[in-house]
Amino acid sequence: MAIEIRAGVFDDLFAQVAEIAQAKAKTSLTAVAIVAERQAKINVSTGSHKYGTKTPAHPGAGPSVISGTLRRSITHTPTIPTGAGFSAMVGAAPGFYPPYPHHSRGGGPPKRTMSSHYGYYQETGLRNGSTYPWLQPACKWALGTPATRLFSDAFAGGWPSL
Questions:
Q1: Closest Cα to residue 33, out of 96, 91, 82?
Q2: Percent of the chain scored above 90 by pLDDT?
Q3: If pLDDT is split at 50, 70 and 90, which confidence band does 6 have?
Q4: What's the pTM value of the predicted model, to 2 decimals?
Q5: For 82-109, what is each residue's pLDDT tens digit?
Q6: What is the spatial distance between Cα 136 and Cα 134, in angstroms, rounded to a whole number?
Q7: For residue 116, is it within any domain?
Q8: Cβ-proximal residues to 55 (8 Å cutoff; 6+ apart), any chain
Q9: pLDDT single digits (tens) 25-74
Q10: Which of 139, 118, 34 is nearest to 68 (CA)?
Q11: How far apart are CA 11 and CA 18, in angstroms?
Q12: Residue 2 CB contacts under 8 Å (≥ 6 apart), including other chains
């Protein structure tokens, strides 16, 4: 039996496919951001120690927990449309401070460092040159097998037909 394809059928079909694809892409990217967030929280938990004592973490691995403020501050943004697709960010949210002050080098009054700054210093390097990366490894891992699986599962079915 022959199917007659009327004018506009493909336009309508492609519009439906585009709408479904955008919804699936947004949902999948949100899931990848959540996976990266969870892994980052694991990465900032390399042992624990009290403030002012030697860290059990080794340079090149994630930092250890002192108060848990950095771990609590890790979050992701909502997935939003951009010119080319969608965007979501993962990292330490500003506004979280540890419960203890640290002493400044210049002998000034003790101050507290916001966890987003502390996380950045851990990731990119401390004064002594040591790095304790936690976010980049989490994002690299999340964009590997988990992202592939999440996007493959999302785009496997549920498409309109003629």
A1: 91
A2: 53
A3: confident
A4: 0.85
A5: 988 899 999 999 999 888 876 656 666 6
A6: 6
A7: yes
A8: 47, 49, 63, 64
A9: 999 999 999 999 999 999 998 888 888 888 888 888 989 898 999 999 99
A10: 118
A11: 11
A12: none
Domain count across the chain: 1
CA angle 112, 117, 120 (to 5 degrees): 145
In a domain, 2, yes or no: no
User: Does some domain include residue 1?
Assistant: no
CA distances in angstroms from 94 to 57, 91, 117, listed in the order given: 24, 9, 8
Tell me how far apart the alpha carbons of residues 49 and 55 are, in angstroms, rounded to a whole number. 6
Residue 124 has pLDDT above 80, yes or no: yes
Q: Which residues, 6+ apart, have CB-to-CB distance to 57 below 8 Å?
A: 46, 47, 63, 64, 132
Q: Which domain holds residue 86?
A: 9-154
The total number of residues shown for the chain amounts to: 162
Tell me, yes or no, whether 160 lies in a domain.
no
Reply yes or no on whether the pLDDT at 159 is more than 80.
Answer: no
